[in-house]
Fold these 2 entries.
Entry 1:
Amino acid sequence: MTIPHPSSHTLDPYDAFREELRQFAESECPPALKEVVRTNQKVTRNEYRIWQEKLFARGWGAPNWPVEYGGTGWDLQQRYLFEEVTAQADCPPQYHHGLGHIGPVIMHFGTPEQKARFLPRILDGSEWWCQGYSEPGAGSDLASLKTAAVRDGDHYVINGQKIWTSHAQEADMMYTLVRTSNEGRKQAGISLLLVPMDTPGIEVRPIPTIDHWHHVNEVFLNDVRVPCANLLGVEGEGWKCAKFLLDRERLSPATVPRLARLAEQVGELLRARGAGGSAPSASQHVLLERLYLAQAGVAGAREMLLSAIQEEMQGTLAASKSSALKLYCSDLSQQLIGIALDIAGPEYAARLVDTVAATGQEVASDADDSLRQLIHTYLFYRSRTIAGGTSEVQKNVIARDLFGA
Amino acid sequence: MTFHATPMFPGDLYDTTARVAAAAPVTETFESQEPSETWSQFLQLGWQGVLIDEAHDGAGASLGDVAAIAEAAGRHALAQPLAARCAVVPLLLAGLPGASDVLRAMAAGEASVCPVLDTGPVPLAAVRDGDRLTLNGRLHGADLTEPATHFVFVATQDDGLPLLVLAPRDAVPGHASTWLGIDGRQTADIALSGVTLAASSVLAQGEDVYTRVERASAVGGLLACAQTVGAIGAMIEQTIEYLTTRVQFGVALATFQALRHRVVEMYVAYENVRGMVRRQVLDLCEGPAGSAPRDIALVKLYLSVTGRQVAESAIQLHGGIGMSRELPAARLAMHALACSLQWGDRFAHLDRLARPALH
């Protein structure tokens, strides 16, 4: 039960590079960190930071940034290899809000002062960002946001509420879209502000989610005063910044390698479950078929990504293709973790949170905890087809391309 | 811009096959005595010789070239035995001393060999006696959509030794029964009762027979997948065309989100299987052949499930007209369905994959 790794030869020129990455991932990523990833525990700022510092020290802090800002200047294929090798080695992913999201926007729209102030701290992992986009009344329809910023001297005064803000509880900064005008189209009059999270008037409240992990928050902004120097780009043109980000980061080279690793893990889990048993049961056959279909799906997704990378490098990538990839991979991740749920079974679903351990008296065995984490992950992965553009929104995007209208 | 499928293996072979296949008439009669106009063109083009080595007057080309032919044919739901006779048979016979003549004749388009590798309910028994080989049993499901000059099949001796046998068409009696399949393929079950052949009809024996049959059938399955990719691409194009044209409730059907989203699901499946099949073909062209049948089984399992889902969507999205045999999209759906069952269906491949995993 191995994942077919079909296209190694298409990346031949990068063999030496792959080996360099492999050695680094093997020797530099601390075993304790790998253990967190391998056992599917939630990765928090602490793990992200340790890994980011290691990468920064090696000069690989920002695989997606140009060299002039301290990035590696790697092309998409190299970035893909980096993701593939690090995922295989159970290294944590990189924290994306700084490196992937706001970093490139600051590079494009920021003043020299803003670049000097913010970029180095994203790169070395000393400053942590979260994204204040969604609001109670503005989800997929983001431009309906109402949180308002009013100028008062050399400050903006922000009032409103953000929701589903992941990592707000451990972030130093929040890049947030606010309404600075109610004139014209609703996309006009939106501005992008960079808000220090320790500014008075900010309150972060955790949202208890079905996965029992602390991931997302409500962020209340009550007369929050932010210097005008923290406006990114032009007032009223924040939508442009948001669009820039979406257009630029259409391909996420990390998704497929992480899926491939998950497929391997689920395969191991299924093997372990059947080990020592007598004749294979009907349930094993059913689970096996689902696993095979998902494994084949991962192989197909990998080809889709590699060809999308080629097209993106040539500037010919259609929106329908990157959306199809997002749609497919998020669905596949749910299929895989659904198999894991069925393998772990009712035993762990009924014993999700160890309330004794929570009081510090007793700790469950590692193997048990690893299976329990899969249940957390299953529940968490319901968000895969919701966050970053719901599957239904992706389908609308793809349909527009397919039908030409 | 509306959707248009991009070939996995573009080039002359794809273009030529697509052109010939597009002009092929739809027939539903069993006329296996004369090759169809379309099949004659393929024979003249040398499609049977694409995989045959140059020493036997073939092109010595790669599996990618046959896959190009299969994909193009699949776009038009062509029921002809392209995979069987242009890939499975050449692979089955490659390097066998007794097959030299027939390979040359195939490359020249003068012979066409029908493989019968599914043993069916009644295994074929063989007895060798001096220079005679006597056969009893049944050739099960011989694809005679186009006429064959020879059959190649497996017969088993009393002692369990398998034999790979090449028999001229004339040496075996006529049809016992003939069938029209769901996608216009025509097969025959032929009863053999004491049929005798020259002992030189045995081309291979023992373990080698199983190895050859397994590998050749696996490649047949992969080409069925290539046909399916072609069929799916065309089904999506035609479904979009239909939904854009057909007006109900005063608007084009293409304006309904429920229908659009189902087409999107067909498209996402298409991109996925297209990448998967293309990669598997390339790997087979370039890599070591050792694990090929297992890797192909994974792809074929996936395509068997996905091909059928897409076929069902294409019919559903066409509404009533989707039930009509005259509708090209419906024929494509039947073709994809047939491909999903041929060369091992979903469960045959699941069994193959699960055997080592569960024991």
Entry 2:
Amino acid sequence: MIINKNEIANILTKLAEEYLVIAPVQKDGIVQFSAIKNGAEACLTFANTKKPGKEILFPQSEELYSYTIDTEGVRMQANVDQKETIVFGMRPCDVKSLVLLDNVFKNDQYQDVYYLTRRANTLIVGLGCNEPAATCFCSNMACGPFAKEGSDIFLTDIGEAYVAEGISEKGQALLAKLGLGSATAEQKALANQLQAETKADGGVNIAGIAEKLGGMFEHPFWDSLHEKCLGCAACTYLCPTCHCFDIADEATDCNGCRVRNWDACMFPLFTLHGSGHNPRPNGKARWRQRLMHKFNYFVDRYNATACVGCGRCIKNCPVNLDIRQALADIRALD
Amino acid sequence: MEKLTQQIRETAKKLLAEKKVDLVVGFAQGSLPLRSTPYFARTPEQAENLIWSSTCENNLANYLRKRGEKVAVIAKGCDVRAIVGLIKEGQIVKENLYIIGVPCAGMIDRKQINAAVEGKEILAASDNGSEILLKGKDFEKTVAKQDVMFGSCKTCQYNNPVIFDELLGEKVAAREANYADIEAFEALSDEERRAFIAKEMSKCIRCYACRQACPMCYCSECFVDCNTPAWIGKSAKSIDDNALFQAVRVFHLAGRCVDCGACERACPMGIKLSLLTRKMVKDVKELFGAEAGVNLEDPPALNTFKFEDKEDFLL
């Protein structure tokens, strides 16, 4: 199928009549996923959104349920979001991150109704990256600028138009409904060429890293890695795969709600026990946790690395602590 | 800059070789264009990695609190102001710190530079002293450093370190105090100010990069992290809670903020935090004639009381 760029705004506006349409929107110089009513609001020429796509299915703060107490007792209201949603224009790294997060929220021990309900009701239109940034290394991370895994529809920008491919059944059904023209053989060839030739190779090699990390818990490497880290959550909050959360009750008088908030292993409160003991009491233990979780524990548990190479942690770290360098240093260790 | 880099390396190597210090905290080349990164040199060989450039933006005083060993630091004017404040607050033992002062002509702001190239990706940058040459995939652009300096650097009056054990490089001319940005903000109506703050706070993701980057923010438990009682909602979607966090953070810096701008630099969301901190710096200066970290003698502004202190803001 082919979508001319000048038709995009109209198509999105029309879809927004029926679905909740979420697209990248530029505001104050920052591109973020945002619900749109008017298709012209969508900004599809972005390198990547500031906050990762995970926030659509796993919001930074989510009211799980609310309650009120009155003379008759306690009334509880679950807040499961059931809106039919289309996410239009998510980069392949972010789409891949959702595939990874599925493991966390749907496994043999736990099924998260909030995440999974949204997931089931959300259709994802992935958008390939013609010009990956210098900080991107998705090609090194079982992903890539044109990786289609997880997308329901996949778009390839060929200049004046997007070549649209229906990947899943529901993606194909939506494409059929839009009544688009077919891509010509020439357009398809151009898309194929872009898909085959565009790479985001940051020179990151994680072959053998999981095994190596497995034997490194007590290694002196961890003594200095964290030294310049300030202990903020810019890296984890802006990471598409970081998924640790904390649950808090927020209540005033007889009304309250239980809120799930993103947590970050960089914080002193992370894994702090009620007793006051913290198994990760300092920057060293927290940084070890961050790298181990992504490149060892997650691999052990789900057979995949919890990093998609989007480069957000590199771009946004206030002290330029570069995860690519950390991985290279680990590789170089005897 | 090249010359300063050489001087810094020589000084650091000497201090480490003679075992006068165990550690030199400075900057090394970063992994991205226009980035340097804090660096910890423990051997004369490691001191070869130290650099000085217009991108040494972090406030290194952050790494100096409560250290056991003897430490030297490569410190620009604002780092030294923070060090002075921390010495007064008992966080740094002056005798264990060797300050290698570096006069600072101002650091350059990547956000302004990115805006100057309309967000296009910068793949290489070089500094000829007064200008930065930026190169990308299909563009080249030269920007004057003066035009892309951090706001806090443009109005810095203490760019020459106020105390040091050794000063490298030439002193630079201090700038004029200029609170035009704050005066413009003060001139707005209550409604306009409220709307502006709400807009800025709506961007906050509560990553606490501002708090962590601030050399003067070192409470062992921040009030936002406290659960019993929970002084503040933990979710980032409440603009009021985000504003409360910032308000308390800034009030806690009353008379202590050294106006280094580290909070705003660290913010990944581009929130104009210095508007709040600088408003208070200006107020403290006007109301009490006090400035934080400008000498070792003045007591911290909030540690003193005089009968003639202004109190017309009290209820």
